[in-house]
Amino acid sequence: METKRIAEILRQGNPGDSTRVQGWIRTKRESKGFSFLEVNDGSSLANLQIVLNGDYPEYEQILKTLTTGASVEVEGELVESPAKGQRVELKAAQVTVFGEADETYPLQKKRHSFEYLRTIAHWRSRTNTLGAVFRVRNACAAAVHQFFQERGFLWVHTPIITGNDCEGAGELLAVTSLDLQNVPRGDKQAVDYSQDFFGKPAYLTVSGQLEAEVMAMAFGNVYTFGPTFRAENSNTSRHLAEFWMIEPEMAFCDLEGNMDLAEQFLKFAFKSVLEACPEDMEFFNKRINDTVLATADNIINNEFERVTYTDAIALLEKAPDKFEFPVKWGLDLQSEHERYLAEKLFKKPVIVTDYPIEIKAFYMRVSEDEKTVRAMDVLAPNIGEIIGGAQREERLDVLEARMRSHDINPEELWWYLDLRRFGTVPHAGFGLGFERLVQFMTGMGNIRDVIPFPRAPESLDF
Predict the structure, then answer these.
(1) Does the reported pTM lie above 0.85?
(2) DSSP output for 314-359
(3) Could you give the CA distance from residue 159 to residue 143 in angstroms, rounded to a whole number?
(4) How far from 363 is each of 217, 248, 408, 417, CA to CA, in Å?
(5) Which ranges carry the Aminoacyl-transfer RNA synthetases class-II family profile domain (predicted)?
(6) Are 74 and 94 in contact (CB under 8 A)?
(7) Which helix or strand (DSSP H or E) is residue 62 part of?
(8) Which residues, 6+ apart, have CB-to-CB distance to 227 below 8 Å?
């Protein structure tokens, strides 16, 4: 007898089919000599109802082991279900209990807060909400690869351990093999990194962008999709210390091409997830945030607005709303400004371009006015910035000057400058936090609830 996933049975199973299912009991109830088990195997939001007749051999004895949380294998025949909301149920002929669960199992039939579920992250995937989150996360990850692979991009694996700070923000998690109880010291009591594993300071990467640029100079179009890290001491609903990033880099590409790709990617990702996880997305819209489906429709069916930073500032200065943070040319946009543009002013995604040179990273291409850089941020309703990117500075002399203005020693990035010495080309790319995207799609209120095992300040469980 073939073992089938519950999602397949609910979609395609017919009365009279013999089948086997394996999963975990969500609930149990007894009525008129029958027991009804709700079993879930993680493949769908819905459970499969198992009907166990009272004349089953040793019925009373096995019933004691069929408790919430227990793992079971059930063989039997599908029958039409008289219950509302389900087409078929499984009439059990053979039940095997693999692992029992007593009353201390933490996911008994009651509501649990997301805060509590984070303390039992090894169990929370069995809940309806987190199960739906991780199915959407899986579908979204598949869409990432499908989108870039269909367009001829090469998936490249950039280093997790690095010696450089791509963003220049200094929020780095150090990696060392030194004995922290007896750290070697040199002149002026500075740490002697020559005795460390790499012979120099090492960190967990904040971005694979610089290495992705290297690969783009050989393959044209590439993308990274992997973990990145920030030692940002922020306990908010928007920040993680470990998260995944999607970072495409395109040779022979300018800011216009970069914006086009970013827009195409978001539309593709949302459409793919809606097609792969319709029940889960309906669940989020009903139980978590009633704008989830409208947001997806807004992304998929609207052309993104495009506006310069200068024009965005002018629009914000004229806004009748009062903002907590000041609006002034030369200051970075805050989340409240970004959301105002996307939610109230344009009521759809907005791409803001050409930011002041002083507030952006050293690698962004300086514009002809020498006051702005060819940067872009994609702003979306309900979340604000979702994508950040730029055309990269391909001119050697300009890039060296920009490094010095950011107190970056050009000799430390000699290999990055080499890309401008030999066969330089215009190129562009962007970065997208994967968890931010999943949070945006699902309407979940806290980013720690869209990654299986969140890492945050003073949080390193599981």
Answers:
(1) yes
(2) HHHHT-SS--SS---TTSPPPHHHHHIIIIIISSS-EEEEEEEGGG
(3) 23
(4) 15, 15, 11, 11
(5) 134-452
(6) yes
(7) helix 59-63
(8) 160, 242, 243, 244, 245
Q: Is the pLDDT of residue 159 over 80?
A: yes
Sign of the dihedral defined by the CA atoms of residues 15, 18, 22, 25, in that order:
positive
CA 261 to chain centre: 19
| Residue 310 backbone dihedrals phi, psi, to 5 degrees | -60, -45
* Amino acid 33: pLDDT: 87
Q: Count the neighbouring beta carbons within 10 Å of the beta carbon of residue 347.
A: 13
Residue 70 DSSP one-character state: -
Residue ranges in 120-208 assigned as alpha helix (H) = 128-150
Tokens representing 434? 């994967």
Inter-residue contact 429 to 156 (CB < 8 Å): no
How confident is the model at residue 222, as a pLDDT?
98
Q: What is the pLDDT of residues 239-281, one digit of tens each?
A: 899 999 999 999 999 999 999 999 999 999 999 999 999 999 9
Residues 5 and 331: their CA atoms lie apart, in Å, by 53
Looking only at Cα atoms, what is the longest distance across the chain?
Answer: 85
C-alpha dist (Å) from residue 109 to 21, 63, 332 = 22, 18, 47
Spatial neighbors of 103 by CB under 8 A, at least 6 apart, are 67
